Amino acid sequence: MSHRFDVVVIGAGPGGFRAAKRCAQAGASVACVEKEFIGGTCLNWGCIPSKALLASAHALLSAKAAAQIGVDIPTATPNWPNIQQRKDAIVTGFRKGMTGSAQASNITMIYGNATVNSPGRISIQTSGGSTEIEAGKIILATGSEPIELPNIPFDGDFVISSKEVLSLPEIPKSLAIAGGGVIGCEMACVYAAMGTKVTIIEALPQLIPMEDEWAARLVQREFKRLGIDAVTGRKVASVDKSTEPAKVILEDGQSIQAEKVLVSVGRRSAIDPQIVSNLGLAMNRRSVAVNEKLQTNVPGVYAIGDLVGTTFLAHGATAEANVAAANATGGDRRLSDYSLIPRVIFTFPEIASVGRSEQACSKEGLDISVGKGFFKANGRSVAQNETAGQVHVVRDKAANKIVGVTIVGFMATEFVTLAAALIGTQGRLDEITFPHPTISETLEEAIEEAFAQN
Ligand SMILES: Cc1cc2nc3c(=O)[nH]c(=O)nc-3n(C[C@H](O)[C@H](O)[C@H](O)COP(=O)(O)OP(=O)(O)OC[C@H]3O[C@@H](n4cnc5c(N)ncnc54)[C@H](O)[C@@H]3O)c2cc1C
Fold this sequence. Notes:
By secondary structure, this protein is an alpha/beta fold.
């Protein structure tokens, strides 16, 4: 007889793991199936390792600029093997922590590749063979994969994805980055700090195209100081691997020499097509279609995280997990306002925004006023020698309400949550989504605990 669980979660990334935890806390028997590592993309190939590398890069830049604040550091050089070792140790440490947390929460972790045969039946291919389990409810949280450019497919060596760029055996002398979005810009900062000649090629007219133009302009100016070149409004056409170093050819014929090319043009939802066809899941292009309760078209089957293609952020996945888990265990919750989920980019300087951008408001024809704050006029920023940055607060004049905040500057990702609280919650602090990974998440933990107590 196969085991039966009230809820089976497929995927143990931030979305799946949070969902499993919330269901278990609600008293359900829960299994979480994972085909690779606990923590998913976020812990193993995403948020955490990238932030570990960014921390080393920031330390290096701070050491080099230390003389500006009266501290002489004769030489500051990257020790790449140690930087890599530290990053890997952080990842394995959190894997252990999450495994312990699963045990403590009574979640049955099953390692293997899951296929859903029908709404209540899941078969799992483990290293020891095939096994089948039954589920009252299913939460799909299978994540996403990097988008490949058809003209320059990934080869794992010269044309690489966000996975390989985190673990390069050596610091490359030169790196071309196709795609100036979140991942491309963060990796540009890491390698520029390490001494790599970095060139970003972005097809749209500005870097970080999802943010307001002023923010992109400010970041691009700071990138220039770091030695990062940015080519905007042009696409990569092909690569020429016959030369040493190889070359990236742009559509207008310009060529850029590079030891490696990182293709970071976005991610797309990923799910085994067999699960889609066996369940008859309704899709929204490549993502699983869900309603505000995170229900799919199949009763008893929910989908969350990168798989539903909403935020492509870890804390977006956990926000959806909270809602899906509540609904899978008898609750009735909705996630209707995605604009209140902060958007965070951990570049030098950081970029964080919440609510509606100035551009979005203008497109909607909203009558707005914009208030600005400047890091160069802020005591702490000047004392810290981190003076590049601005805060823009967007107010809907008719409603006399703040509708959006964008922050560019030191620690922007840490205090954007405060802006989210201002805009959206009207005092309901338990409804704030905290960006990941930030120190402010410690506050989230404390708030959750406070609300969990009667
Ligand atoms: C380089 C990089 C940096 C990033 N930095 C940030 C950041 O700073 N902040 C942020 O918020 N977001 C960041 N992200 C995005 C973030 O990692 C994702 O949004 C997040 O991991 C999505 O969580 P998820 O639970 O939906 O999916 P995932 O984390 O992708 O987890 C899905 C899991 O499902 C498993 N799985 C898939 N199919 C099956 C199956 N059939 N059976 C069993 N298991 C299966 C996979 O192995 C995987 O472990 C970053 C991403 C990258 C690539």
